[in-house]
Amino acid sequence: MRRLLSTMPKMIVRALAAILLMSSFAAPVGATPLDDANAAADSGDYAKAMQLVRPLAEQGDPAAQYDLGVMYYAGQGVSRDAVEAARWFGKAAEQGDLNAQYNLGVLYDHGLGVAQNDTEALKWYRKSAEQGYAPAETNLGGMYDHGRAVPLDHAEALRWYRKAAEQGLAPAQFNLGAMYYNGQGVAQDTAEAMNWCRKAAEQGFAMAQNYLGQIYVDAPAQDYAEAVKWFRKAAEQGNADGQLNLGLRYENGEGVPQNYAEAMKWYRLAADNGKLGAMYGIALMYDNGEGVAQDFGEAINWYRRAAEHGFPPAESNLGLMYQSGKGVPQDYAEAANWYRKAAEQGLPTAQANLGNLYIGGRGVPLDRVHAYMWLSVAAARGDPNAEKIQQRVAKAMTQAEITEAQRLAAEWKPGAAH
Length: 418
Prior knowledge:
Helices cover about 65% and strands about 0% of the residues. The chain contains 22 helices and no strands. The chain has helices at about 35-40, 45-60, 60-75, 80-95, 100-110, 120-130, 135-145, 155-165, 170-180, 190-200, 205-220, 225-235, 240-250, 260-270, 275-290, 295-305, 310-325, 330-345, 350-360, 370-380, 385-395, 400-410. Helix 12 (about 225-235) packs across helix 13 (about 240-250) and helix 17 packs antiparallel against helix 18. The protein is elongated and about 90 Å long.
């Protein structure tokens, strides 16, 4: 029987392009016929603002067309209507309004008021970005970063992120920092990563705060106290990754005194925000009686919540609960089912456990070939005991069976059913 997993995987997030839809009136420069409309909007009289803006928009004023699009999108003085918003943004965008071009790109990006279309999103982001608009530069970088409507090109993504980051836009600073940290489009440089992530974090950008905290955790000279500072800032803004990471620090007493009650508090908040790792953390605390009365039923409940969304450690531990009959009737077939789900995603513990079930024919047919195969895969992925068990199994196998098992192991890849 395998021991319960006692730690969670590290939570380094992938850099994501920010999506920032303008949602307020554009401020005109100097005295224009839009002044009265802006004054009305500023005072909250959107009905009057609409009466003043619509005629100007219909006469072809791009600033008014942009404002009218904003009002339709936000439901200001009119029922919210993304289709009408897209129509008016389009009219202003065609006349070169950089805010409208950006907003139209966002609408195409997300399929709001228009059919989702990466090519159109790219087109309008580029037009706005080429006028130096930082949010558009960020999102254009994101298109290159993820290979949407263009070939994936980290160097080009980095170029656009940098343009926006140098204008002080926090999401772009975060993305640029993440690319330096991961060595994407640029040589890996932890100092530059920290520099850019810190700039974004100090502006209150929660994703950057969490990321900066994780860099401190993963640094050769770990600084848990500094990590906790940034995790807390992110967590207090409702960032689920920050909540999970702060909970983990309290559970392990890293950078703060160990406090299971605080760990559970932050895990629950992260779980409410959908973090599977937090659900798994709660399950472990109930399973091991850490800060709560040991309760296998609650452990199974939380393992299952995470496992049903495909979280491999939870799948593996749920299998172990069924194998050992903790909180549920012992059921080797159900144990094999959950071990297999985690094993096929590449979790060595689950692969070794599944191999053990094949050795004895418990919940699966007795099958030394598949036992050897799973144990071999687990050993190659770092399971500390799999190789010894594999060697014992081999003593009961023919050379032909071993050759077949080795072939299956060599061909195995995550996601493949066996």
